[in-house]
Design brief:
With 374 residues, the protein is mainly alpha-helical. The chain contains 13 helices and three strands, in the order ααααβββααααααααα.
């Protein structure tokens, strides 16, 4: 193992090592390690059930997670200006590709969210989450800095464009997360109490509208509100897995519910962790996610750049909301939503998009001094 660089080392790596939040980096590395473990535990059963090679998901996810680790490190080397440029370019590309899904997208379970590539499918809207969070932060900050620039209006217009495309796919869960992140950014930027009330009422109205418009949203809410009526197979099996695991778990490879869960390696991987490793590992996973979110927010308390504060807040909110939605829906605390658990669930687009967002977060929360680039 190589020793850390000297504090006198002024190379790119030396400056990065002594300015990046190494505790958050360790926490992210822990999640990536848990992602490897959970793929070994959950994916062979899924591969067997769909008549695929036993290690097909493991091999792919090893590559995805290795690439994700590299993305986190490389992106965290950027300056805030570099983060902004990457986000603007990424937001534009993701917008175009998300629009393309409506024309050439692959239809999976009634939704057109993916573009087929050799060996994998890409979900462009996953990359909209981190890139739009940073783009919106830049627009809001510029609007506050120069009042003649309608930053909030432009950010809201881009959001409405994204929301219309996601509605057409449809992807209500992704829309809800992006909406929540933008609301948090507006709130941090100084949204007045009347605007907060109007925004909250609008979100409630939009949620009710989604219930009326989309049959699958109605079905999920009905299953959540009336679990005794059946039809909520995946959640019932997930809760069974948690019950089987108890405090210490049944042991690695000893889980049985994963043989019955359709998405044991993806959306319900948290249930597999609960059955095989018990409540202890589940609490550790929750603690790691909570640590990353709180650590970023604490570091922002000493930040004076509005763009950095808003961008980092948006990125960490998106990261935390995604983890919350996955774990809460698996535990039947909210209606089910097909959203991955960052770095732990299987999925190339999700893993790489989360890595991009975490890399940006680490870049923005690095300790910068007077002589450092902005």
């Amino acid at each position: 193992m190589l020793p850390p660089p000297s504090r006198a080392d002024t190379s790119l790596f030396g400056r990065w090592w002594w300015t990046v939040d190494r505790w958050t980096l360790i926490a992210v590395a822990s999640l990536i390690g848990l992602g490897y473990v959970m793929m070994l535990a959950a994916s062979p059963a899924v591969a067997h059930r769909i008549d695929q090679m036993r290690d097909v998901f493991i091999i792919k996810q090893v590559a995805f997670l290795a690439l994700a680790g590299g993305i986190v490190v490389v992106v965290s080397l950027l300056t805030p200006v570099g983060v902004r440029r990457v986000a603007l370019a990424g937001c534009l590309i993701a917008l175009v590709l998300t629009a393309m899904t409506l024309v050439v997208g692959v239809d999976i379970k009634g939704a057109r969210r993916w573009i087929a590539l050799p060996g994998m499918s890409v979900q462009p809207s996953e990359f909209l989450k981190p890139c739009f969070a940073v783009t919106a932060a830049w627009l809001i900050a510029e609007g506050k800095r120069a009042l003649r620039i309608p930053g909030r209006a432009v950010a809201l217009a881009i959001f409405l464009l994204i929301a219309m495309m996601l509605k057409a796919q449809p992807d209500v869960g992704m829309t809800a997360v992006i909406t929540g992140v933008l609301f948090i950014q507006f709130f941090v930027a100084g949204l007045n109490i009347m605007a907060v009330a109007i925004s909250l009422a609008g979100m409630v109205g939009a949620g009710f509208g989604a219930y009326l418009i989309f049959p699958h949203v109605q079905t999920r809410w009905q299953h959540f509100l009336h679990p005794g009526e059946g039809g909520n197979y995946q959640v019932m099996r997930a809760l069974q897995a948690f019950g089987n695991g108890g405090l210490m778990g049944r042991g690695p490879g000893e889980g049985r519910v994963k043989d019955l869960l359709p998405d044991a390696h993806a959306d319900t991987v948290f249930a597999v962790a609960g059955e095989e490793f018990g409540m202890i590992l589940c609490v550790i996973i929750i603690a790691i996610f909570g640590f990353i979110v709180l650590r970023a927010l604490v570091r922002l308390l000493h930040e004076n750049d509005p763009f950095v504060v808003l961008a980092a807040t948006g990125l960490v909110s998106s990261f935390g909301l995604q983890a919350f939605v996955n774990m809460a829906s698996t535990l039947d605390l909210i209606p089910t939503k097909g959203m991955t658990l960052p770095f732990i669930s299987y999925g190339g687009s999700s893993v790489l998009a989360v890595a991009l967002g975490v890399g940006m977060l680490l870049a923005l929360t690095r300790k910068r001094h007077g002589g450092d680039p902005p």
